[in-house]
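Changelog-linked ticket: 1,6-di-O-phosphono-beta-D-fructofuranose example.
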Amino acid sequence: MRPIADAPVTRDGKVLVLAYDHGIEHGPVDFDPQPESADPEHVFDVATHPAVTSLAVGKGVAEAYYPSYEDDVSLLAKLNGTSNLWMGEPDSAVNCSVEYAAEELGAEAVGFTVYPGVNGEVEMFEEFREVQEKAREYDLPVVMWSYARGQAVKNDTGEETIAYAARLGLELGADIAKVKYPGSQEAMETVTRMAGPTKVLMSGGSKTSDREFLESVKSVIDAGGAGLAVGRNVWQRENPRRILDALEEVIYEEASVDEALDA
Ligand code: FBP
């Protein structure tokens, strides 16, 4: 059974995951543009904004900070992750189990990265199976970070690649698939069609202008996507609440980008 319908990870069927696993995935360099973002407390505070449906963090950050925020923030435990110092084929160590996320951390959803196309794809898919089946036992929605990589992937943001990445979310039993933006609303329509009932989220990516960022989010929503999972485009901004106000308009209120920017 799919647990997504009235899960806390959604608002009116839409999703805005604030992603903050960058300390492991990219390292402290991501915090340089806005040094206060190195402090998890700052980002947990940002995540109390009503536009945010959950905050994605790894086990250690959750253990240290979530107890103070469990009434105000919904926790999405990111179960795997690898540092940017790793120079091998893309892969991701499993750092936390579903049981630990549910029982010890108090997570209301779990997230797991798969890299379709890499040499370790078989093992990653098998790890995902264990996560997906255990999450069903706990009635936790599963978000699959689906990033096609490896030698066969010539263009990791091409429509075909992203549609395949999203489809794998459906095939492997993810409730939500998080994929890179394929560049246009038309391409995103193909992506959401391929994902069927699996909700599709756009991955935020590196920081861009307010307008460029909101226009891509708007095209995802208009294409039938559920929203986005975003990190740097929120907490690398001087005023992260301002962009969350605008995202709230675009994602939940069907506002145009101009309306959201003027609000
Ligand atoms: P951003 O919005 O900052 O891109 O964060 C989304 C995210 O998926 C993070 O959860 C993750 O740390 C990062 O992107 C990984 O990005 P990449 O693998 O492309 O470097």
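Closing comment: Example verified and attached. The two ends are 40 Å apart (CA to CA). The chain has a mean pLDDT of 96.
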